[in-house]
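Title: Prediction job returns without error message
Component: structure pipeline
Severity: low
Priority: P3
Assignee: unassigned

Description:
Job completed but the reporter wants confirmation the result is attached to the right record. Sequence as submitted:
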Amino acid sequence: MAPRVLVSDELSETAVQIFRDRGVEVDYMPKLGKDKEKLAEIIGQYDGLAIRSASKVTAALLEKATKLKVVGRAGIGVDNVDIPAASKQGVIVMNTPFGNSITTAEHAIAMMFAVARQIPEANASTHAGKWEKSKFMGVELFNKTLGVIGAGNIGGIVCDRAVGLKMKVVAYDPFLSDERAKQLGVTKVELDDLLARADFITLHVPLTDKTRNILSRENIA
């Protein structure tokens, strides 16, 4: 009997076809992840579950997933999956850590440009029929200091792009080695030092108990 996989969040048709080309029976229900009660009703029928961020794979859901062998997360973060509960049940949890790394890093850089040059405000002003050229001068990124919290896969790419823009980059990451920092062309610092020195701050860490509220009104004041 072919393994059965439930896709409970939005995925491309290509992704679904990849399963089918390999003899996997797929049920594509992209809105199901938002309906936790319905998901719990049918999860026991499946060997695999493919999700994005809407589906919440909790311990309660896993208890009903009696046939489940693997959860595949189309993305990097797995904070919507109870990994200890899955491991206890023998369910493998997989993600795609490199799938959208460059896209995400470039988006962060784009947002920094937008803030520095006040692009959203200038766009709204123009659409309102105004021409307030001098009001939205903004600032250059050149020679500004970027603080990168989390210099792993995505954060490392952000560092590389920022260095290319001739920014000064300081990074806080307990797992960043001196050798890797040198390769990236960044300065390793403690979090308080980063917050004091940075003109811009970008956050690239998984959501855990240690990183939750790592930035607050108090520590960036």
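Comment from assignee: result matches the submitted record. Residues 70 and 111 are 35 Å apart (CA to CA).
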